[in-house]
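Retro notes, structure queue

What went well: the backlog is down to a handful. What didn't: a couple of records were mislabeled last round, so from now on we paste the full input next to the output in the thread. Example, using Ribonuclease J from Halospeciosus flavus:
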Amino acid sequence: MEIEIATIGGYEEVGRNCTAVRAGDDIVIFDMGLNLSKVLLHDNVETEQMHSLDLIDMGAIPDDRVMSELEGDVQAIVPTHGHLDHIGAIAKLAHRYDAPIVASPFTLELVKGQLEGEQKFGVDNELVEMEAGESMLIGEECELEFVHVTHSIIDAVNPVLHTPEGAIVYGLDKRIDHSPVLEEPFDMERFREIGREGEGVLAYIEDCTNAGRKGRTPSESVARRHLKDAMQSMEDYSGGIVATTFSSHVSRVKSLVEFAREIGRQPVLLGRSMERYSGAAERLGKVDFPGDLGMFGHRKSVDRSFKRIMNEGKGNFLPIVTGHQGEPRAMLTRMGRGETPYEIEEGDKVIFSARVIPEPTNEGQRYQSEQLLRMQGARIYDDIHVSGHLREEGHYKMIETLQPQNIIPAHQNMKGFSPYVDLAKSQGYKLGRDLHVTSNGNRIQLVE
Ligand SMILES: [Zn+2]
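Corresponding output:
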């Protein structure tokens, strides 16, 4: 059976991930992501109303025109998890394919949110829910399986396409977490089996984000302990404490909610995306929040909530808000500018349970946000966080476990690929033979 891989997006940047695998006449597309930094560069861009080709020209969504060179039918569109660099272009591209969108429950819920917000295209692809551990037939000879992985968002999977020529493992995004906060541990056992069974692993497409960092990525339980330590140290403080983190990181939000209670404060989630992600996780039974946890997204209800906090005393509450990257329109940035009823005073604490995404726009905005908060007297606690991506040791482990015949580095630009290339070379792989460094819009024929 012919096996071909089209590297559509995410091979020249971090963002707009998209890869297609053709096995005979059947094609599966993994991820359709958005490169948010390309959108943020332009002031007031409303992507909801924009046409796909304009967004492709901006570099914001994958340029899927290479798909016309692939001879076969798309059988499924498979987002791996709910981060925007994996699902953010589905509303703009999925309608071009007569294929279902297959995803884990939480990811699918977030995809639905994306499709509801779309104003330019009517996307009526069938939505199919599939849990980790389950599989479905693709055409007559292939099978698509979801393997449970741990990442900085719940319900992430690594999809595996089993073909008669061997398995294709799509490895974006993960860390190997043996003690995550909300979920089952990383399913290393299943990867071990996949590495050994049948024809073995024909190809492994891997996320190179942290390949240049030594050691292993710590577990979410490490970030949780760090957070607990920081918050317990504030137990005696009677003024304002505010926390921010990735809204999509429901495990972290859950930890913040718990520790707020432990230091005698009522947690309250504020900001549209806080409400969206945590609300979705709660509806699906993925997280158990206290019954009286307030979640407010709309401006009016947020302001009402802030007024209540000011009236009843800041010392009784922990607002958990958006704005960890200093995004200009996010809640924490607005608080820093004094645009909300919440008044920050000398000595108040601000917890960033997040790392600045190393990108000039983010770094500048975050700097500005912190300065605004500091000017009002706030004390900053930053970097209470662990990454969601594998470092060196995780990459060694995956190569050793899967023993792939071919490796395709992804989720980076050329510079970002180089540490991973060195690592793979040290394991016996050779560029141009079984280690395929490529860029967007190319095809790699693995079996002719
Ligand atoms: Zn991710």
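Agreed that this is the format going forward. Reviewer comment attached to the example: Residues 373 and 434 are 51 Å apart (CA to CA).
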